[in-house]
């Protein structure tokens, strides 16, 4: 079943996170043809320092071949 993990810079509201989740699930249901019960979503907040020191090198650069959308920034 699809488990969607979202990494964000800290500062987004719970309402923004919920809306993002709802919209992603709406599109994923349409594209993948699964029902609501199939999905789980996790959102992890990071500081800018954590992003630069952990997320960017370890989850973006190190796994670049798995990216379907690459970022338009570099550190």
TrEMBL record:
Residues 2-51 form the 4-oxalocrotonate tautomerase-like domain. InterPro entries: 4-OT-like_dom (IPR004370), Tautomerase/MIF_sf (IPR014347). This is Tautomerase family protein. The lineage of its organism: Bacteria, Pseudomonadati, Bacteroidota, Flavobacteriia, Flavobacteriales. The keyword RNA-binding does not apply. Keywords: Isomerase. GO terms for molecular function: isomerase activity. The keyword Isomerase applies.
